[in-house]
Amino acid sequence: MSILPDIPILSFILLSPLLGLLVLLFLPKHRGSLLKIAAVITTLIPLALTFWLYADYDKQQSGAVYEEQLDWIEMPLNKELHPSVSAFTFRLQYELGVDGLSLPLVLLTSLVTAMAALAAFHVKKRWKSFFIWFLLLEFGMLGVFLARDVFLFFVFFELTLVAMYFLIGIWGYFNREKAANQFLIYNGLGSAIMLIAFVILVNTAGFRVEAIGEQVQYIYSGSYADIIRNMTDTEAMVNQPAVSMMGTINPFAMTDGMQWTLFIMLLVAFGIKLPIFPFHTWMLKVHTEAPPSVVMIHSGILLKMGAYGLLRFGLLLFPEQAKAWATVLAVLGVINILYGAVLAFRQTELKLVLAYSSISHMGIVLLGFAAFNEIGLQGAVFQLVSHGLISALLFLLVGSLYERTGTTELSELGGLARSLPFMSGVLLAAGLASLGLPGLSGFVGELLALLGLFESMRWLAAAAVLGIILTAVYVLRSVLKITFGPMSDSYAALKDARLIEAVPMIVLLAFILLLGCYPSILTDTVQYSMGDLFARLLATRAGG
């Protein structure tokens, strides 16, 4: 019998980076080795706890298996606008939970962050500040996937933007400040749209009714459970309170037009983060200017926050609108795939190849969403985890290559398999995973997403296959150019991967192989919670 529901395991996972951050504050800033070791040990704590949680998780139970809730602040509102109601209250609360959608992403976050912490040993300046922001970033990312309150989700989401801004702007490459500003502007715009959508959503669906004798009390909160319950209850939508969460007359109503407005707002807000073409230009700057350990996190985790938010708050709350726009989502996905693949093939710089590759691979996620069936959605979630591992490994290799050669231009690299056999082998394996070779994780996510889409949109699925073929072309072109061919004499004495580099390479590659050979370890976790939730939502909305 599980003992985890009896202990606040989610809070332990969430707050452990802050514990490490407090330790760093008391360490001397000139003790670089000690600061790095403390940061790495800190990242291993949530990783160990998340593995424990994943092993303990009941895969056949739908919904949030582990939940924690604590009321923070209660503010009474103006009840004179509604005399028949005894009280209106706005409640801010600390609410965490995991289900089959969020748990794999929490594990991905803990794993990639720990490996990125090892990769961050190359940082040459301001070690203490770097790892403080690094751990604050991990705290925000874990909070995004654990939060079950929309306002708490928003706070964590914004925290990741602030931490990333400083990590890019201070420790990035030559155009780091421009990249950091562009990152903040684009993502800040998306956050503003998201906040407006959340405020409207809470005013129209984020309430709970409690009976007090013959009268009733309306409690406003950002609780995801309250919102999703009311969104699937037609009577609740008809009888929504006349008082807003601010205590004024409620100007919003959850009409069909309002549902469409909120869905489109959330699509744009999270589409910027994903990113969906044409909201992708900021991402290219980040991938090329941020330090390798930060890009590992950005490509491996932060892009997945956009997809997670779109699925959690867009598709799950507004399934009718999402299903009506399934073709639009599929077209956007195909555009992402083809655009990213073609541009990746045209690039002569390795970091840009991988940046456009990320755009292309996130298109597969959109195809899984657009399929709007269980197999397609499983493929989308699998692709999120798979691409997170593969992209983190590829950017880890990019950082190691740049440290040795001082360049990532394909024209200046070649024949490195002779002097760097281990790293070249890992690069080849990561490239094969990226192009979807069977037996590696990239194959499973692409296959499931395309199979799901093939049931309803065969021509678009066929067009997406063309993008996968192009992926094989640009990946093999880049990998073979780096590892084979003539080698510069200056590269003959290069040293292969050090232990501190080899460990995260081996760990990430091992998980890519594990998911490729044994995909049910992830699909079983996703299947029950996602399948049941979507079936209930669609059946309820259809019945209403």
Structural class, by secondary structure, is: alpha+beta
Strand content: 5-15%
Radius of gyration: 24 Å
Give the number of DSSP strands. Answer: 4
Q: Categorize the overall geometry.
A: globular
| Poorly predicted segments | 540-544
Strand order of the largest sheet: 1-2-4-3
Report the span from N to C terminus.
39 Å
**Mean pLDDT across every amino acid position:** 88
Helix content: 55-70%
Number of helices: 21
Helix and strand run: HHEEHHHHEEHHHHHHHHHHHHHHH
Could you please describe the fold and organization of this structure?
Helix content is 69%, strand content 7%. The two termini are 39 Å apart. It contains 21 helices and four strands. Helix 11 packs parallel to helix 14 and helix 17 (421-434) runs parallel beside helix 20 (499-517). Residues 540-544 have low confidence and may be disordered. It is globular, with a radius of gyration of 24 Å.
